[in-house]
Amino acid sequence: MEMVQGNLLLLYAVIAVIALVVLIAKFKMNPFIVLIVVSVILGLVVGMPMASIVKSYETGVGGALGHIALVVGLGTMFGKMMAESGGAERVANTLIGVFGPKRVHWAMMVVALIVGLPVFFEVGFVLLIPIAFNIAKRTGTSMIMVGIPMVAGLSVVHGLIPPHPAALFAVTAYNADIGRTIMYALIVGVPTAIIAGPLFAKLISRFVVPNPDNPLIAQFVEEDKGRELPGFGITIATILLPVALMLIGSWADLFFTPKTFANDFLRLIGNSVIALLIATLVSFYTFGKARGFDRAAILKFTTECLAPIAGITLIVGAGAGFGRILIDGGVSKAIVELANNAHLSPLLLGWFVAALIRVATGSATVAMTTACGIVAPIVTAGGVAVRPELMVLATGAGSLILSHVNDGGFWLVKEYFNMTVTETFKTWTVAETIISVVALLLTLGLATVI
Known about the structure:
This protein is mostly helical and 450 residues long.
């Protein structure tokens, strides 16, 4: 059977996405099963060789879970230790005290912007979710009101600001200056996070109220037992340890010559999985032994916390498998051709190509790195006078648009916030799209000034 090409391929991809949403949201079918079934049918319809459909799907699942399963597993253990010791409660109480109960959504955005700087979205998410749960519970605030500013802050730094790997790759591809890129990214990113985070959360939380009976909240929020909480300093130091390790890893070349033992060692401990592993081991002391828990209690906490996240992890992997079928089925290629024929200004072209690849593959990192590879040669060859730093921002903004069912982040937010697929579209998907559009508009505005 011939592989389907062009517009028909894009039509099949759109039908597949609609089918996923309808089957999961309307017919209440299991997302894990539905994602596998629709992916296989799409592979058959677009003419992928039958022998390679399952292989392609497995590659997508494996590629995502290789990283996410480790990160979510370690992050959940870390979060559980933070919750059991009262560390999450201590941070929540301090933030409520500083910002006031009515402005905790601003607090979550600020914390996410800081913690999210060197870490992948998923890592920042699992580090901050226990604090978000605690703040929501203690102030009686909706999870939407606290959670959307948190994911908006994480998303903005993930897509726009180096040292994030995709943004760093874009800096290299466009020959941009890293210092200027960071400065412009903050000028664009902070107002974007404010609009898509606290302001949008305040509006949407009136219309979307997730089911308050969230099984994960019970795991990460300990009832107040009148106990002595760990100090704010030691709690924050433990939470920021993986963040610091990742920053040191990304700056390894500043400290030691590349390819030396010391440089390689810093890169190893700066890897997100190793940094989280070290932080989790440290938390066994700071949140465990130092709080009076023995080894048996720590073993119990770290074992029982993994059961609730098994389903989430599988669904995230299944979504990534669907994204891989779209790539191997040729949908991404068809989108690139569509973008190349659009004849847009360089900033709009960078945004547009990244946006289309994001919608097709579900990955912001893949969208940004692929778009840079396509757009950078066009911009260079065209000799167009456009600041390379702004090209980085425009491409990053495009890579964040319209997160939907083929994005692991979509399922992470849906499951942890205890929302339906429809509620996730109304909150998370809209917030991501606001980030993408506002960041593009601010970048275009900045281009007229500098």
